[in-house]
Amino acid sequence: QVQLVESGGGLVQAGDSVRLSCAASGRTFGNYAMGWFRQAPGKEREFVAVISWSGGSTHYADSVKGRFTISRNNARNMVYLQMNSLKPEDTAVYYCAADPRLSTAVTTPRYWGQGTQVTVSS
Questions:
Q1: Predicted pLDDT of residue 15
Q2: SS3 state of residue 102
């Protein structure tokens, strides 16, 4: 069992930057792929980014590629999402997720956080 808690969301302006954090507990953090998803108002939840357990492999949705960076610090049981050049369409609830396998972390991760709201004004 893994518990995930996101933080760092808030109200920002277009073009601004913010870093989201996700703290993991309850189970060994190593060997878990970690991901970020988001759900905008009136839209389905969508994949944003994923990182392998070692941090050696990352993948991003086309909509955020070049602007967002996912990273992790296994010693601190933390995963981060650095978001730069924010756009109003980035407005969503952002969820941290964990799964033992990278392939399923992208689609149907086993564990989810409660989410943190990011609102980008124009």
A1: 98
A2: helix
Q: Which residues, other chains included, contact 103 with Cβ-Cβ below 8 Å and sequence gap of 6+? A: none
Distance CA 20, CA 72 (A): 11
Count Cβ neighbours within 10 Å for each residue of 55-86 and write b for 16 or more, e otherwise: eeeebbbeebeeebbbebebeebebbbebeeb
- Whole-angstrom distance, CA of residue 116 vs CA of residue 96: 9
User: H-type helices in 1-122, by residue range?
Assistant: 102-107
Give phi and psi for 116, each to the nearest 5. Answer: -135, 135
The token pair at 65 is 């590629």
In the predicted model, is pLDDT for residue 35 greater than 90?
yes
Q: Quick check: 27 pLDDT over 70?
A: no
pLDDT at 54 over 90: no
* Coil, strand or helix at 84: coil
> Per the structure block, which two tokens stand in for 97?
């997720």
d(CA 99, CA 109): 5
